[in-house]
Amino acid sequence: MQNRLLLGHPQLAITIGRLCQQLIENHQNFGNTVLLGLQPRGIFLAERVKERLESFTGTDINLGYLDATFFRDDFRRRDSPVRANATKIDFLIEGKKVILIDDVFYTGRSVKAALDAMTAFGRPEKVELLALVVRNYAKHVPIFPDYIGKKVNTLDNQKVLVEWKNEGEKVDEDNVWLINKEG
Amino acid sequence: MEQLSTKHLLGIKNLTPEDIQLIFQTADEFKDVINRPIKKVPSLRDITIANVFFENSTRTKLSFELAEKRLSADIVNFSSSNSSVKKGETLLDTVNNILSMKVDMVVMRHASPGAPHFLSKHIDANIVNAGDGTHEHPTQALLDTYSIRERLGDVAGKKVAIIGDILHSRVALSNIFALQKLGAEVMVCGPNTLLPKYISSLGVKVELDVKKALQWCDVANILRIQLERQHIKYFPSLREYSLYYGVNKALLDSLDKEIVVMHPGPINRGVELNSDVADSENAIILDQVENGVAVRMAVLYLLASVSK
Q1: Which among B6, B112, B123, B166 has most CB atoms closer than 10 A?
Q2: Domain B8-137+289-306 top-level CATH class
Q3: Cis before residue B236, ω within 30 degrees of 0?
Q4: Is the pTM of this model over 0.70?
Q5: CATH number for the domain harbouring residue A55
Q6: Domain B138-286 -> CATH class
Q7: Chain B closest-CA separation from residue A71 CA (Å)
């Protein structure tokens, strides 16, 4: 089976723009709202969302990176361990509205771990989840995004890859691919 | 690389440079964790760790215990002074009895070099060497090199002098291995009687004059005089040792550069190190203690994640 382009230029930029408009509708001037990009791949989307929101609203918006590696429920159950990434949250989330941002929503377990990891930084007033791509019919826990870029039907032997321009790889533009895993 | 190449931490000699870098990168994230208001993660919640100490220890044992608790592990503590070892039980029997209680990891300190290596051949649990006689003390070397990396940005290319009782020091040997694997230059300095005969075969520089050693190095790691391991006189008196090998502010002021001062603790103040240096800006001794918890968390976490 061929790899399939799910979102390319300019659809991906339009989708991110639409997600930002939805966020503005619910959070207005973002005075009490912060963004948290989930490590490792959600941070690239979070940076683009922050950039677009700031250009739409003209205000500075807090963005942090959250790594949930130490809170995962599959430690010692995977073939290879997940490498920890940096958590960087330079602001308080106590009493704030938090928007968790990830590129792909699959089983929901990473988001569950992220919710646990977040408790070390305070008790937010409200938590919402934004995902660029949702893989249908795959969730293991009762968690689902509030803001969705695109829903796709996938098989277990496929994965969704979000490529970001200037990410260190030789990628000319932002793309979302449906990849067939080897084996 | 996301996984250690070994199931046990028996010594630095068994680690690859990639293993050490992975431990450092993981420790960076744990250091962030232990500086949060909630200093705990649930990673090892289904793991039981036995701290088996056949030799006295204060800071290493405390540091391991704190690291284990921060990772949510269950802990059993064993010390030989109040155990069946006193009744003649062998090391293997003692540990097997502990393992029968379904223990997943053993952190062990023992007076005999090679004790953890022996144990690793006979039991299935992960073993962490917390010091085996005068042989190795790998987690101390890891936290020392991690502290150098933190202060100076990198270990590669740095000149590190290890000063003092090299002969009886497991810290010295582990540090030599770790520093060399990370690309640092190493010098040992001490009285001739406290330098092992074949130390230069490890590829280290040897210097008898402490001032020359300090002039040469970027980092001075000053070791404790281990009176408890010295059964004969290696130098005339502590006073004389302090006079010739003690590091003090006057000595550091006489250099034409700043150096970083380290000590694995506990310090014999006024013998190998004076308070005017130990408590100065140059010293990163308390950073070493803080980093010890983060590094040990990283070691335990990574060993626990090694595929069985």
Answers
A1: B166
A2: alpha beta
A3: no
A4: yes
A5: 3.40.50.2020
A6: alpha beta
A7: 6
